[in-house]
Structures are given as structure tokens and as C-alpha cells.
Hints:
This protein is α/β, with parallel strands linked by helices. It has one domain: Glycosidases (TIM Barrel, Alpha-Beta Barrel). 31% of the residues lie in helices and 19% in strands. An 8-stranded parallel beta barrel has the order 1-2-3-4-5-6-7-8, surrounded by 4 helices. Helix 6 (195-206) links the parallel strand 6 and strand 7. The radius of gyration is 18 Å and the shape is globular. It starts with 16 loop residues before the first strand and ends in a 7-residue tail after the last helix.
Amino acid sequence: xxxxxxxxxxxxxxxxxxxxxxxxxxxxxxxxxxxxxxxxxxxxxxxxxxxxxxxxxxxxxxxxxxxxxxxxxxxxxxxxxxxxxxxxxxxxxxxxxxxxxxxxxxxxxxxxxxxxxxxxxxxxxxxxxxxxxxxxxxxxxxxxxxxxxxxxxxxxxxxxxxxxxxxxxxxxxxxxxxxxxxxxxxxxxxxxxxxxxxxxxxxxxxxxxxxxxxxxxxxxxxxxxxxxxxxxxxxxxxxxxxxxxxxxxxxxxxxxxxxxxxxxxxxxxxxxxxxxxxxxxxxxx
Length: 285
């Protein structure tokens, strides 16, 4: 079992840092954080934010709780834009911005690279896993040259690969232990998947080497207690998997293209199940 790791955002044995991406209709981030604080009786420990590749990354985060860590999910680009050196100036700017935060930050660049839906995926870059690895390593080297030592690197594939191919496996896309602080994974209960179905594969592959982070997770509501029961099932799965050190829920009702409301308070039962998880000893990191 992993007993250390995580880089500037360290893994705490026995504890899970619980946070969220918050995108609540009609509310600012500060208002959303205040609502969840009132509902859960605690602050988020990770505040998850999304940025495009050419955006200026943040050096401050609106309403960030004192003990919270920001996680920046930074979208990628066609991989040759990085491996050629053409984006070095932009990457330097990003490193300097995150360094200015003056506190530890989680950086999740180019996530779900084993899917076929993003322009930085192996599937859209000549089916070449090595190109993704080279791009990641170049980013890491630029950040190191800028002495952005407050950055923890989160490598975060999707729970399953699309397409299934030798060049698109976790192993083919992994940048190497020296370049990764946390291993993350995205997985949603879309078709009645269990937490073990979604997260067991990545756990078995990397938990002995790196702390594990559930970087995006949510559950469909199929009526009755289906959503609440899945949240409880998820909490039990995390309890049984000690290398999981962080969870960031996809807590939103504004995600483009989805009628589903992923937020945790769509009904009283779901909110109660989430509150029970959030206030348990395991999730007190």
C-alpha cells in the first residue's frame, strides 16, 4: 500500500481530501462554496477549476477556503504543438501563474487522454501514446525550470479506454513515476456501473506506486433512492481502498450537453448520503 507521495499536496494515510468542481446554476463560486458549507457543515478540501490551454491560469481563486487546495484541470492541444516547442512560452506563463499562487496546487493536464473525445488524446494524435508521454514530460520540465515547486502533477485517464488498443492502455500513456505525483481517474455511474467497475482497474494498476485520486465522479438519478444508494456504495468502496487519498465530485447542473443534474442536492436522500460521507472519519483529510 502507498504510505507516502503526492508531492507538494501530500497523501495522508487513512484520510481522503474531499472536494468538488462546483458549477451551480445562478451562483458564483463563492456562493456555491457557501451553500455547500451550510449543507455539509464543512468546507471543500479541493476546489476544482477548468481552463483552456491558452487561458491565463489563476494566481488567486475566488472564495477559496483557507485549508482548501485548488485543482486546475488544464485542457490540452494537439500534441505536436507541445512536443515541437511551439507552446513553450505559453507553458512558461502557466508555470509562473501557478507559482504565484504561493500555495500547493494540483495540476491535472490533458485528462482522459485514453478516450477519443479530446484533441490531445492518443486517438487523435496518430494513435501514438508516446506523443502524449513526450508532451507531458516536456510540460513537467518547463515547470521545473521555472521552479514551480508548489505544483502536484495529477495524471488522470478515463476509467476505460476508447478505443481499446495496445497504444491506448494506461501503461502506454503513463508518463513515468518521476513525472506523476497523483494518479487520477474519471468515472461516472451512467449505466449502473459499480464503483469497483469504474475505479478498480486504475487502483490495481497504480495504488502500490502512487496515491489515487477520483478526479471526476457523479451518479445518474434513476428515481427513488438510486442516487443516494450509489453515493453510499461509493463511500464504502473508498473506505475499503486505502490508497485513495482524494475525491473531487462533479457537483453541477450546468454541464453542456447533459440534462442530468450531477449536483449532490437534487433530493434530500442524496444530500443526506453525501453529507454522511463528507462527515465520516475517512473523508476528514
